[in-house]
Fold S1 RNA-binding domain-containing protein.
Amino acid sequence: LDTSGVHPEAYPVVRRILEATKSDIKALIGNAEIVRGLKPQSFVDDTFGLPTVTDILRELEKPGRDPRPAFKAAGFKDGVEEVKDLKKGMILEGSVTNVAAFGAFGDIGVHQDGLVHISAMSRNFIKDPREVGKPGDSVKAKVLDVEVAR
């Protein structure tokens, strides 16, 4: 169960499930046919309610699944690894790391966040940078200037 999302505190429920199915953990885990045939209510007790037991059964059916939505990471450009590699006019993929009143900071893969001033964040006038971006957003950014000394 170490590779599953079943918390060790819930192992007593899993033991009861194993007893009820007369199988071992290797036969049960990942076996949708067995798990779907179980009634979650049968394993509810004072400690573990129906939602918890249902989650345990889901995890036993598909161990290791990740319920979070897919995350698209920015694809950093090959050969652009340091500020000195940046050239004016380059268009790079990155992600917003922070938003401030004067603009947003973004990671474009050069170990130093870049600043996008509020005036360059949108073709239309915006009062607040948070109108067009928030930390974690994937963006395409055009390099307008490079200040290596800073």
